[in-house]
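in:
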């Protein structure tokens, strides 16, 4: 169908109506993905204002990083972006490399891209299942976790950990992937391609889902851009900005992929953008495999992060890395948008100051504009379409 406007309802002006109602949603509401609180002012079922309260999960990660080595900082940031923890590893490594003038081999750059895109896929799969739950489609979360487990299996084969990997380190990657890892990755891509077709048939073409998402939570492009939106939220409003294409890092400038965009900026557009991004990530991984080949580099030796054990013997410890004084800002196109990191160094083993740019923080404060004029039943579908990561927000 042709969509020409949103479905906001006009505020009622009947003087006989009762006074406004204020709902407190969270911080333990089952439909919220993590602890934050929404204060919703409504006229019956019609939302008039949404105020966001954050801080229920604050752990002081940025302050803790001032008293940690760089490898320890990467472990903390990985827990801020816990659905795609490799982005925390990459940001710290990229900052150290820029400050210290460390060059990363081409092969390691391709391997990093594979891991980052696998992490993006794993994050988007969890989002798809969670969004299905918001509309009562419980099957979606079981299907999504089924494929997500395949991505986590591949990441575990590299690092030994399913969530917080630490495989991307300053100077490259920790070690070469096992020989059979490439074959497992190729099989996973085949399985995921088939699963995406099932997802489309199950939810994308579902009349109930379309009715719950079409022209709901519309976000104008100018408004989104002016308030710092990025990633799928911005692209869903029609602005095709993607750091991988517009400010390429690693080897993204040498691969071909499309940047999907929406037209109306509603929940349905943001949904379709993220689902298409999974396909584009698969496309990028396939091109990366063409460059790294089907097995480990001949003569390659294991690589270890500064501050970690220097060998499997378990006897010696490498000294912490000291990098020159200076400051740097690095950014990556994370699953939720521009994930940036500012690092200030005084030449010591860890940063003097570290600050994380969280796309979820910007998107969370779009809720008031997104929800006004819609019904309470639409609130959680709109939240789900933003894919908020509170670990980024309460860092």
């Amino acid at each position: 169908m042709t969509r020409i406007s949103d479905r906001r309802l006009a505020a009622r002006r009947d003087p006989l109506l009762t006074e406004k109602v204020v709902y407190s949603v969270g911080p333990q509401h089952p439909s919220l993905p993590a602890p934050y609180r929404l204060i919703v002012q409504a006229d019956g079922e019609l939302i008039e204002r949404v105020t966001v309260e954050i801080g229920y999960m604050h752990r002081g990660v940025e302050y803790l990083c001032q008293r940690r080595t760089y490898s320890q900082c990467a472990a903390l940031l990985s827990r801020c972006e816990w659905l795609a923890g490799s982005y925390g590893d990459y940001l710290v490594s990229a900052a150290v490399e820029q400050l210290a003038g460390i060059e990363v081999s081409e092969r390691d750059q391709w391997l990093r891209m594979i891991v980052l895109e696998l992490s993006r896929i794993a994050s988007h799969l969890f989002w798809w299942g969670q969004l299905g739950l918001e509309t009562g489609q419980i099957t979606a979360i079981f299907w999504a976790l089924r494929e997500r487990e395949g991505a986590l299996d591949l990441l575990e084969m590299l690092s030994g950990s399913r969530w917080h990997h630490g495989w991307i380190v300053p100077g490259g990657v920790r070690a070469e992937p096992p020989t059979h890892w490439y074959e497992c990755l190729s099989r996973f891509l085949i399985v995921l391609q088939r699963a995406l077709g099932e997802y489309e048939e199950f939810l994308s073409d579902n009349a109930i889902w379309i009715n719950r998402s079409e022209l709901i939570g519309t976000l104008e492009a100018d408004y989104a851009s002016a308030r710092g939106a990025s990633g799928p939220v911005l692209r869903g409003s029609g602005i095709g900005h993607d750091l991988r294409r517009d400010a390429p890092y690693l080897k993204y400038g040498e691969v071909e992929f499309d940047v999907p965009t929406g037209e109306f900026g509603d929940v349905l557009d943001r949904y379709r953008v993220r689902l298409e991004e999974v396909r584009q990530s698969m496309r990028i991984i396939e091109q990366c495999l063409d460059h790294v080949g089907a097995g480990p580099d001949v003569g390659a030796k294991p690589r270890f992060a500064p501050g970690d054990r220097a060998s499997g013997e378990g006897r010696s410890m490498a000294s912490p890395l000291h990098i020159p004084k200076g400051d740097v800002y690095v950014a990556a196109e994370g699953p939720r948008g521009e994930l940036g990191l500012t690092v200030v160094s005084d030449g010591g083993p860890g940063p003097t100051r570290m600050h994380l740019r969280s796309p979820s923080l910007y998107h969370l404060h779009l809720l008031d504009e997104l929800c006004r004029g819609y019904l309470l039943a639409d609130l959680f579908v709109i939240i789900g379409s933003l894919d908020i990561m509170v670990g980024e927000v309460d860092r």
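note: The first helix runs from residue 61 to 65.
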